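@channel sequence for tomorrow's demo:
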Amino acid sequence: MNEGCRYSYVIQRYNHNQKLSVIKYLISKKIVSNHMEIILHITDLHFGYEGKEKPGAKAQRINCLDSLLNEISELDSQWKPTIICITGDLVWCGAANDFDEAELWLDKLLQKCDLDYSKVILCPGNHEVDQSKAKKFSRPSTALEADECLAYPIADHYLEPFAEYIKFCKKTGVSTLELGKTKPSLVGTCTINGIRFVVLNSAWFSKDKEDKDKLWLGLPHLELMQSNQQISVLQGSQNPPITVALMHHPLDWLNSEEQNTFSGRKDTKDYLAKRCHILLTGHTHGGV
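structure tokens (generated this afternoon):
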């Protein structure tokens, strides 16, 4: 994957479409009890990227983000975002100063939307990982190994690569997640304005540019949410809440055993699909 990629964003409003070159941005609407919620989906902002491989990349990002803020300022009040979803890679290398830069811009975004951090929901991506720590443990090669590694409570050494991300979540006060009886920052559920959000971490075993087909989402976490009624099968449920799942990597980046039923183990992809209406992802930097 080309790390120094081009950014782009799309603004959808009434019958108006405008495309610019530089960040993936999507406004979508949801109707909940006759009230319209506007979900702003942003991904792969890469704060901290200096663009050494591609001169001008940092300036390109700044210009795009400024344009995005200006566009939001011009939206009619009924079309301003009420919830902001960020699907990973908010920063470039998981360093504290990268998160400081991200916070400065998010403060501006929230001001434009008349929101605070309690309306922000985000999931970690591979660039939130401290690679020097992640390389100290190996990736699981089978579903059995993955389920043992991600059994709850999650072992500290799997949390350590995300230390700065966790600090950022706690410092800013982004939406608090629940996983069973705990309140982690990396995986869990929360409800904002009547919409249920399911946050998953596809970057548990992200290490390098060879991640594709080697990642595990965490079936034990989904099963724990289900057992605590924090998620539910949508078909047949009475008035299920609109459920939006967030994960950084697209499903086809997961290990094949995570995408299929294997030796009696549930299909993680299908397990999730039956419990959410919408899946938001990032990582591939494609057009919207």
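heads up for whoever presents: Confidence is low (pLDDT under 50) at residues 1-33.
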